[in-house]
Amino acid sequence: MKILAALLVAAMVFFSYLLFDRYMEEKRRRASLKLRIAPDGSSRSGDSTEALVTLEAEPSAGVKALSRLLKLLGVNVDEAVRKLEPKFGQAGINSPDAPIQYLFFQRIASIFLFFIALVLLMSSNSEQAMFHKACGVFVGAAALCGPHLWLKNRVDHRAKLLQRAFPDTLDLLLICVESGLALDAALNRVCTELGRAYPEMTAELNRTRLELALINDRVRALMNLGERTNMVAFRSLVAALIQSERFGTSLTDTLRVLSEDFRLQRLSHAEAKAARLPVLLTIPLIFLLMPAFLLIVLGPAIVSFVHSGGPVTGK
User: CB of 117 within 8 A of CB of 139?
Assistant: First the structure.
């Protein structure tokens, strides 16, 4: 057990160093970008600063060391990171450190965790053998399935939040465009208004707004929004914006049609969830409420029957 405790302490120290190294790297980058974002001292959205930091971020020194270690072990880091970046983008994690840290945990740390799980499962000479075995099963499951389940849960959770915020965002964007604002100014206004209500949506639109300003190809910047979210609603919006950029079509009419369509979709989705309630309530009604109801209705009759000397008493 001493070896196990030493391994856990070493792992905690190592990951604490990675977190501290990443914090200092982001702090230095924010300081260097502060004047570029607001050179006159005017106030800008904090999400804009964060989005610009992630646009120009590079892996920190500690993560570069992890990358070299993975390459020494035969892992094709560049190819693996290229495949993981879309998933992390869909999860809202734009840090360049995240894919490499994910690979490290999946390819190296999980092996050590699996070894710790085996040690816990084989400890049978103590009074807490059952507790150790339960911990071993939990650690082993975390080593085998933990990274994949964690990333999938982040992607699904963020998709639900973006799907919920999309109709309101589209309505506000339509109002801004109808009032005469250009696309960049409309996105800025939408981010300002929705920063508290929908922070995930604000982060996505802020990143898109900065890409429109920094990348020469505006179509590529808009397509990045659809690729990061990987949702039908955002791809429809991106297609409308690209059509307006290329052919000069009326963006107001297109956004109005999209807004009405997704409003109806959200209403139909709410109606479908409401229609499922009777089916979902059937099981609790049968197994929880019905026994109590039968006991209340038949209980007095059963008690009277027993006290009257019926067959239940054996007389």
Answer: yes
Cβ neighbours around 263 below 10 Å, total: 14
CB atoms within 10 A of CB 283: 9
How far apart, in whole angstroms, are the C-alpha atoms of residue 145 and residue 74? 22
Phi, then psi, of 171 in degrees rounded to 5? -60, -45
CA 270-276-281 angle, to 5 degrees, is 130
Question: Is 132 within 8 Å of 4 (Cβ atoms)?
Answer: no
**In this structure, what token pair is assigned to residue 299?**
């209980």
Please, what sign has the CA dihedral across residues 112, 97, 18, 66? positive
Cα gap 162→183, rounded to integer Å: 20
- For the segment 71-116, what is each residue's pLDDT rounded down to a tens digit? 887 888 888 888 888 888 888 888 778 888 888 888 888 888 888 7
The pTM of the full predicted model, rounded to 2 decimals, is 0.69
DSSP sequence for 158-223 = HHHHHHHHHHHHHHHHHHHHHTT--HHHHHHHHHHHHTTT-HHHHHHHHHHHHHHHH-S-HHHHHH
Q: CA–CA separation, 211 vs 55, rounded Å?
A: 8
